[in-house]
Design brief:
Structural class: alpha+beta
Radius of gyration: 21 Å
Shape: elongated
Oligomer: single chain
Strand order of the largest sheet: 1-2-3-4-5
Strand content: 15-25%
Distance between the termini: 23 Å
């Protein structure tokens, strides 16, 4: 995943990177694996000894994201401390563009909500 930092005409520093989602093939499955056996724990009478309460299908659903078709090919992210923008499709050669050309693309990008 290429990454760049540049300053716009106002002197604001922008972090820029591309996101390309991994699309699972039809019929394929991702599974979480425990890489080593857990350490045996002393018996705790207050601890439940029931099977996993969540259904397997619930766990799989959390591993996948529903993306709109326009995002399946990936997107370019522009981010500062106060703002985040996204544009799709990923412009070819964005990682080697002059800063002013990259900033023109940033101005066309759509604002997106920042996570927590």
């Amino acid at each position: 995943m290429p990454h760049r930092v540049y300053r716009d005409a106002d002197g604001v520093e922008w972090q820029v990177w591309n996101v390309v989602p991994h699309v699972l093939q039809e019929g394929s499955e991702r599974r979480l694996k425990i890489r080593r056996a857990p350490e045996p724990q002393p018996h705790d009478p207050d601890r439940r000894e029931l099977e996993e309460r969540r259904a397997a299908s619930d766990r799989r659903a959390r591993l996948r994201m529903n993306l709109s078709p326009s995002l399946l090919g990936g997107w370019l992210v522009f981010e500062t401390e106060t703002e985040k923008r996204r544009i799709t499709p990923i412009p070819e050669g964005w990682d080697a563009m002059p800063d002013d050309e990259l900033d023109r693309i940033r101005q066309q990008a759509s604002p997106v909500p920042r996570r927590g």
